[in-house]
Specification:
Elements lengths: L5 H9 L12 H8 L7 E5 L5 H9 L3 E6 L2 H10 L8 E3 L9 E7 L10 H10 L1 E12 L14 H8 L3 E8 L11 E8 L1
The protein binds S-adenosylmethionine.
S-adenosylmethionine binds next to strand 2.
GO molecular function, one term: methyltransferase activity
Organism: Marinoscillum luteum
Keywords: Methyltransferase, Phosphoprotein, S-adenosyl-L-methionine, Transferase
Protein backbone atom coordinates (compact mmCIF):
# COMPACT_ATOMS: atom_id res chain seq x y z
CA UNK A 1 0.00 0.00 0.00
CA UNK A 2 1.23 3.49 -0.74
CA UNK A 3 2.24 5.81 2.07
CA UNK A 4 -0.75 7.78 3.31
CA UNK A 5 1.48 10.68 4.24
CA UNK A 6 1.24 14.44 3.92
CA UNK A 7 2.30 14.31 0.28
CA UNK A 8 -0.48 11.86 -0.54
CA UNK A 9 -3.17 14.08 0.97
CA UNK A 10 -1.72 17.33 -0.42
CA UNK A 11 -1.73 15.85 -3.91
CA UNK A 12 -5.34 14.77 -3.50
CA UNK A 13 -6.41 18.29 -2.53
CA UNK A 14 -4.29 19.98 -5.18
CA UNK A 15 -5.76 17.74 -7.88
CA UNK A 16 -9.30 18.10 -6.60
CA UNK A 17 -9.52 14.35 -5.89
CA UNK A 18 -11.71 14.79 -2.82
CA UNK A 19 -14.59 12.43 -3.44
CA UNK A 20 -15.03 12.04 0.34
CA UNK A 21 -16.15 15.64 0.71
CA UNK A 22 -19.93 15.81 0.97
CA UNK A 23 -19.78 19.52 0.11
CA UNK A 24 -21.62 20.48 3.29
CA UNK A 25 -22.09 19.25 6.82
CA UNK A 26 -23.77 15.83 6.74
CA UNK A 27 -27.14 15.29 8.39
CA UNK A 28 -26.04 12.99 11.24
CA UNK A 29 -23.59 15.58 12.54
CA UNK A 30 -25.82 18.56 11.84
CA UNK A 31 -28.69 17.03 13.79
CA UNK A 32 -26.36 16.04 16.62
CA UNK A 33 -24.94 19.57 16.84
CA UNK A 34 -28.38 21.17 16.67
CA UNK A 35 -29.42 19.59 19.98
CA UNK A 36 -26.28 20.57 21.92
CA UNK A 37 -26.88 23.37 24.39
CA UNK A 38 -23.42 24.07 25.86
CA UNK A 39 -21.61 26.11 23.23
CA UNK A 40 -18.47 26.47 25.34
CA UNK A 41 -17.34 22.84 24.92
CA UNK A 42 -13.93 22.36 23.32
CA UNK A 43 -14.29 20.49 20.06
CA UNK A 44 -11.61 18.92 17.85
CA UNK A 45 -12.24 17.83 14.29
CA UNK A 46 -9.23 15.72 13.26
CA UNK A 47 -8.60 15.07 9.57
CA UNK A 48 -11.05 17.91 9.07
CA UNK A 49 -10.32 18.62 5.40
CA UNK A 50 -12.73 21.29 4.25
CA UNK A 51 -14.17 21.18 7.76
CA UNK A 52 -17.82 21.91 7.01
CA UNK A 53 -18.61 20.78 10.57
CA UNK A 54 -16.33 23.46 12.04
CA UNK A 55 -17.88 26.19 9.92
CA UNK A 56 -21.33 25.04 11.02
CA UNK A 57 -20.45 24.95 14.73
CA UNK A 58 -18.76 28.34 14.51
CA UNK A 59 -21.86 29.77 12.84
CA UNK A 60 -24.00 28.33 15.65
CA UNK A 61 -21.87 30.21 18.18
CA UNK A 62 -19.60 27.44 19.49
CA UNK A 63 -16.53 29.30 20.67
CA UNK A 64 -13.87 26.62 21.13
CA UNK A 65 -13.84 24.63 17.90
CA UNK A 66 -10.50 23.34 16.55
CA UNK A 67 -9.67 21.86 13.18
CA UNK A 68 -6.66 19.66 12.57
CA UNK A 69 -5.38 18.41 9.24
CA UNK A 70 -2.08 17.35 7.76
CA UNK A 71 -2.89 19.11 4.47
CA UNK A 72 -1.94 22.77 4.22
CA UNK A 73 -4.04 23.24 1.10
CA UNK A 74 -7.23 22.04 2.77
CA UNK A 75 -6.74 24.32 5.75
CA UNK A 76 -5.80 27.31 3.62
CA UNK A 77 -9.05 26.92 1.69
CA UNK A 78 -10.97 26.54 4.96
CA UNK A 79 -9.42 29.76 6.26
CA UNK A 80 -10.24 31.63 3.05
CA UNK A 81 -13.86 30.51 3.22
CA UNK A 82 -14.10 31.26 6.95
CA UNK A 83 -12.06 34.42 7.56
CA UNK A 84 -13.58 34.99 11.01
CA UNK A 85 -12.71 31.52 12.31
CA UNK A 86 -9.85 31.95 14.85
CA UNK A 87 -6.52 31.21 13.18
CA UNK A 88 -5.16 29.84 16.45
CA UNK A 89 -7.82 27.10 16.25
CA UNK A 90 -6.59 25.89 12.85
CA UNK A 91 -3.89 23.27 13.43
CA UNK A 92 -1.85 22.09 10.50
CA UNK A 93 -0.12 18.93 11.62
CA UNK A 94 -0.16 15.24 12.26
CA UNK A 95 -2.94 13.77 14.37
CA UNK A 96 -0.48 11.37 15.98
CA UNK A 97 1.64 14.25 17.28
CA UNK A 98 -1.24 16.53 18.24
CA UNK A 99 -1.41 17.61 21.85
CA UNK A 100 -4.45 19.03 23.57
CA UNK A 101 -7.49 18.11 25.63
CA UNK A 102 -11.01 18.27 24.26
CA UNK A 103 -14.56 17.65 25.46
CA UNK A 104 -15.72 16.45 22.07
CA UNK A 105 -13.92 14.88 19.12
CA UNK A 106 -15.77 14.61 15.84
CA UNK A 107 -15.33 11.72 13.44
CA UNK A 108 -16.22 12.30 9.80
CA UNK A 109 -14.25 10.19 7.31
CA UNK A 110 -10.92 10.52 9.12
CA UNK A 111 -10.88 7.05 10.70
CA UNK A 112 -11.53 5.47 7.28
CA UNK A 113 -8.62 7.44 5.81
CA UNK A 114 -5.92 6.02 8.05
CA UNK A 115 -4.11 2.74 7.47
CA UNK A 116 -6.17 0.04 9.23
CA UNK A 117 -3.08 -1.15 11.11
CA UNK A 118 -3.29 2.15 12.99
CA UNK A 119 -6.85 1.69 14.23
CA UNK A 120 -5.88 0.65 17.75
CA UNK A 121 -3.55 3.64 17.88
CA UNK A 122 -6.42 5.92 16.73
CA UNK A 123 -8.56 4.75 19.63
CA UNK A 124 -5.73 5.22 22.11
CA UNK A 125 -4.80 8.65 20.76
CA UNK A 126 -8.43 9.79 20.73
CA UNK A 127 -8.83 8.68 24.32
CA UNK A 128 -5.57 10.46 25.30
CA UNK A 129 -6.73 13.81 23.94
CA UNK A 130 -10.24 13.59 25.39
CA UNK A 131 -10.88 15.11 28.78
CA UNK A 132 -12.31 12.80 31.40
CA UNK A 133 -15.95 12.24 30.39
CA UNK A 134 -15.23 13.62 26.92
CA UNK A 135 -16.94 12.16 23.87
CA UNK A 136 -16.13 10.85 20.42
CA UNK A 137 -19.10 11.42 18.12
CA UNK A 138 -19.57 10.92 14.42
CA UNK A 139 -19.99 8.35 11.71
CA UNK A 140 -18.03 5.27 10.60
CA UNK A 141 -18.52 3.11 7.53
CA UNK A 142 -20.15 -0.23 8.34
CA UNK A 143 -19.43 -1.61 4.93
CA UNK A 144 -16.40 -3.26 3.33
CA UNK A 145 -14.58 -0.67 1.22
CA UNK A 146 -11.05 -0.16 -0.16
CA UNK A 147 -8.35 -2.73 0.55
CA UNK A 148 -5.29 -0.90 -0.74
CA UNK A 149 -6.44 2.68 -0.61
CA UNK A 150 -8.84 4.72 1.53
CA UNK A 151 -11.64 4.73 2.37
CA UNK A 152 -11.20 1.61 4.48
CA UNK A 153 -14.41 0.08 5.75
CA UNK A 154 -15.33 -1.96 8.76
CA UNK A 155 -18.15 -3.53 10.71
CA UNK A 156 -20.08 -2.94 13.90
CA UNK A 157 -18.53 -6.03 15.50
CA UNK A 158 -15.02 -4.80 14.70
CA UNK A 159 -15.74 -1.34 16.09
CA UNK A 160 -17.25 -2.66 19.32
CA UNK A 161 -14.14 -4.70 20.02
CA UNK A 162 -11.77 -1.92 18.99
CA UNK A 163 -13.31 1.08 20.71
CA UNK A 164 -14.44 -0.57 23.94
CA UNK A 165 -10.79 -0.85 25.01
CA UNK A 166 -10.72 2.83 25.94
CA UNK A 167 -14.22 4.21 25.42
CA UNK A 168 -17.68 3.37 26.70
CA UNK A 169 -19.93 2.87 23.71
CA UNK A 170 -23.15 4.84 24.22
CA UNK A 171 -24.44 4.62 20.65
CA UNK A 172 -23.22 2.52 17.72
CA UNK A 173 -26.05 1.93 15.30
CA UNK A 174 -26.90 2.36 11.64
CA UNK A 175 -27.44 6.08 11.10
CA UNK A 176 -31.11 6.81 10.32
CA UNK A 177 -30.34 10.23 8.87
CA UNK A 178 -27.37 9.65 6.53
CA UNK A 179 -27.02 11.67 3.39
CA UNK A 180 -28.53 9.65 0.54
CA UNK A 181 -25.28 8.24 -1.00
CA UNK A 182 -24.23 6.90 2.41
CA UNK A 183 -27.62 5.61 3.55
CA UNK A 184 -27.44 2.21 5.22
CA UNK A 185 -23.66 2.12 4.98
CA UNK A 186 -22.61 4.04 8.06
CA UNK A 187 -23.05 3.83 11.80
CA UNK A 188 -23.57 6.79 14.07
CA UNK A 189 -21.30 6.59 17.10
CA UNK A 190 -21.27 8.31 20.46
CA UNK A 191 -18.66 7.09 22.92
CA UNK A 192 -17.41 8.42 26.24
CA UNK A 193 -13.89 8.29 27.59
CA UNK A 194 -13.77 5.68 30.35
C1 LIG B 1 -10.98 11.31 3.68
S1 LIG B 1 -10.42 12.88 4.12
C2 LIG B 1 -11.77 13.51 5.09
C3 LIG B 1 -11.80 15.00 5.21
C4 LIG B 1 -13.05 15.56 5.92
N1 LIG B 1 -13.20 15.00 7.23
C5 LIG B 1 -14.29 15.34 5.09
O1 LIG B 1 -15.16 14.57 5.50
O2 LIG B 1 -14.40 15.95 4.01
C6 LIG B 1 -9.18 12.52 5.33
C7 LIG B 1 -8.50 13.74 5.85
O3 LIG B 1 -7.56 13.37 6.85
C8 LIG B 1 -6.39 14.13 6.68
N2 LIG B 1 -5.31 13.36 7.29
C9 LIG B 1 -4.82 12.17 6.88
N3 LIG B 1 -3.87 11.72 7.71
C10 LIG B 1 -3.75 12.66 8.70
C11 LIG B 1 -2.95 12.77 9.84
N4 LIG B 1 -2.05 11.82 10.17
N5 LIG B 1 -3.09 13.85 10.64
C12 LIG B 1 -3.99 14.81 10.32
N6 LIG B 1 -4.79 14.77 9.23
C13 LIG B 1 -4.67 13.70 8.42
C14 LIG B 1 -6.27 14.33 5.19
O4 LIG B 1 -5.46 15.40 4.82
C15 LIG B 1 -7.73 14.53 4.80
O5 LIG B 1 -8.10 15.87 4.86
Amino acid sequence: MQQLDQQYWETRYQNGLTGWDAGAITTPLREYFDQLTDKSVSVLIPGAGNAHEAAYLFELGFSDVHVLDISESALRQFQLRNPLFPKSHIHQGDFWAHEGKYDLIIEQTFFCAIDPVLRTAYVKKTSDILRSGGKLVGVLWNHPMGENEPPFGGSEAEYIELFSECLEINVLETAYNSIQPRAGREVFIKMTKK
